Every structure is written in structure tokens, then in C-alpha cells.
């Protein structure tokens, strides 16, 4: 049986909902579709205040996407240390950082050609 394809917009909305559920902050969506060398269509970048909150954000995203879309990430990396957790949903890659690690790596500047959409916090 073939796996159903999930609309990127619906997946983006569910990932953002999962981040907001546990008060993840500084949410940026990088649209990489116009960049030839991009490995996926979108990056979603956010941060938490501690390794506990980073793991809570990751768990919330997984729970929300699983419940609403019956999907799970293809790969999750970095949960052990929880300073930078990468969640790979194939077309969308989520980066959940602790704030100081996000500032150090500054992924947004590495993908400067991407269209960046800032998501305002609802709290």
C-alpha cells in the first residue's frame, strides 16, 4: 500500500501548532523551494529555553502531527543532549534549538536566499 502524500501547508500548520502548544519561541519558516541546492522545501526553526523545553517542543510536534495527520518524522536527531534537535519530515525539516545554540549556528544567515516568514507568538 502506497503512503499517502501530506500537503506541505497542512504539515507546516501542524508543526507550528505543536511548537506553540508548549510555548516554543522565535518561530521562523524558511521557504527553500526556489533554491536549487536545498535539501527540502522548508525549514522551520524555533527555540526553547532549556533542554527540557526543547524536548517538550519535539514531543509536542510529534504528538500533534501524529494525531492530526497520522504521520511521523522520517528521522529525529539530537534528542539526547537537546541543544539542537533536528526532525526530518522529508519535505520539511524542523530545527529546535536552545537559544544560545541557535545564535551560534545562525542557520537563517546560511540560507540567506530563502524567503523567511516570522510566526508571531500567540502568548
TrEMBL record:
Localization of this protein: Cytoplasm
Keyword Signal: no
Main location: cytoplasm
Any Pfam family: RsfS
Keywords assigned: Cytoplasm, Repressor, Translation regulation
Source organism, top-level taxon: Bacteria
Function of the protein: Functions as a ribosomal silencing factor. Interacts with ribosomal protein uL14 (rplN), blocking formation of intersubunit bridge B8. Prevents association of the 30S and 50S ribosomal subunits and the formation of functional ribosomes, thus repressing translation.
NCBIfam families: rsfS_iojap_ybeB (TIGR00090)
Subunit and interaction comment: Interacts with ribosomal protein uL14 (rplN).
Family of the protein in this entry: Belongs to the Iojap/RsfS family.
PANTHER family documented for this protein: IOJAP SUPERFAMILY ORTHOLOG, MITOCHONDRIAL ASSEMBLY OF RIBOSOMAL LARGE SUBUNIT PROTEIN 1
Name used for this protein in its record: Ribosomal silencing factor RsfS
Species in which this protein is naturally found: Flavobacterium granuli
Upper lineage: Bacteria, Pseudomonadati, Bacteroidota, Flavobacteriia, Flavobacteriales
